[in-house]
Write a structure and sequence with these properties.
Blueprint: H1 2-28, E1 35-38, E2 44-45, E3 48-56, E4 62-71, E5 74-82, E6 90-98, E7 107-117, E8 124-133
Parallel strand pairs: 2-8
Antiparallel strand pairs: 1-3, 3-6, 4-5, 4-7, 7-8
Amino acid sequence: MGKKFIRYFLIFIVLVLAGSAAWLYTYYYESETPFVKLNKDIKTIGRVTNFNIILGDAKSGLRNITVAISQEGKKHILYSQDFTTRGTSEETVAITLDTQKLNLSDGAATVDIAAVDFSLRKNRNNVSITVTIDSTPPQISVSYTHLTLPTKR
């Protein structure tokens, strides 16, 4: 009975270790990338533009979020947050983009959004959106070329 017990006990230990290793592998070494969603289309940016970004990772949670805008080689960080513990599965970030404060000129720019999760792989989702900055207000002109005045009788 002693040798049989030791054999079954060793088999049990091996199964527990294999199961624990499989659980740790799938939990900490998962390969799912974080998601990034915008609440509206931001292809055109005015003088001041507000938008929300929803970021998340359902398995290991978010580790880091960064939102930046780049134009002509100059990068401006709009938002950055590091999470110190696992478990933040979703975060909504409100961005107010003021092109005048950032000294951005009219023309093309790129909004870069990065989310990194807490897995051992540090899965990353990078989203780059090419935008057009148009901070010039529309001009309205009125022309009175066919103006007729009443005549006295």
